[in-house]
Amino acid sequence: MEIGLTHYIIVSALLFALGLYGIVSRKHAVMVLMGLELILNAANINFVAFARFGGMNIEGHIAAIFVIILAAAEAAVALAILLNIYQHFRHVNVDEVDQLKE
Predict the structure, then answer these.
(1) Quick one: average pLDDT of 76-84?
(2) Cβ(40)–Cβ(93) under 8 Å?
(3) pTM, 2 dp
């Protein structure tokens, strides 16, 4: 049995669904960020799979590298915001935070 494009799309769809579930159902901000990372990884799998099975183009790999760089920057900024939220509210539940104080 050979692994084809369909297998990659199925794995990507499962990761996307898990990430979406993590964003929608969780109240803890760290879990929401983990769900967002799962969604970005699902997009990376699609970029690389379509680049592989669509003619061996390098554009899919370059797009995946840019998404990885974006995810790293997003994680740094989001963790800084979470630390600020924790300093002011002493919790990181996103449902209970309605504004940031100065």
Answers:
(1) 87
(2) no
(3) 0.81
